[in-house]
Amino acid sequence: MKHIFFAFPGGFAGAALLLLRASLALFVVTVPAVVAAPSSWIAILFCLAAILISAGYLTRIVAGLCAVACAIMIWPMTAAPPLSLFPHVLDAAALALIGPGAFSIDARLFGRRTMHLPG
User: Fold this and answer.
1) Which residues share a beta bridge with 117?
2) Tens of pLDDT along 100-112?
3) Residue-level pLDDT at 43
């Protein structure tokens, strides 16, 4: 039986993930302004995503969705080179894979759990 341990690291690693979440939240808030989003609903959704990421609530899901949405929004840009914004998309993907860390709502709600996978 395989065990997968989903940890919420604390200490310096948790503080680093907190800084990564804050950096990503600032980027997500500015994406609609940089891309000149045609709708205010897009800006509202990105602000909501930034709030969820900074609080660390549903971090993996929201960061993954933000990575995809930001990549789609910055791809056709001609005003600013997409390569300058692409590292932030990679940060969102990394946060979606790593998780929020110990200083988050997810850590308080879900704690440290062990999942048992068949096989």
Assistant:
1) 2
2) 988 899 888 877 6
3) 85
pLDDT at 13 over 70: yes
Mean predicted lDDT score pLDDT of the chain: 82
Rg (CA), the chain: 16
- The distance of Cα 87 from the centroid of its chain, to the nearest Å, equals 13
State both tokens at 106: 């997810």
Residue where the block lists tokens 């300058």: 84
**Cα torsion 17, 65, 62, 34: sign:** positive
pTM for this prediction:
0.80
Token couple for 29? 């808030």
At 114, which helix (H) or strand (E)? Answer: strand 113-117
Calpha distance 103→10 (Å, rounded): 7
Judge whether 23 and 70 are in contact, CB under 8 Å: no
Residue with tokens 């690693």: 13
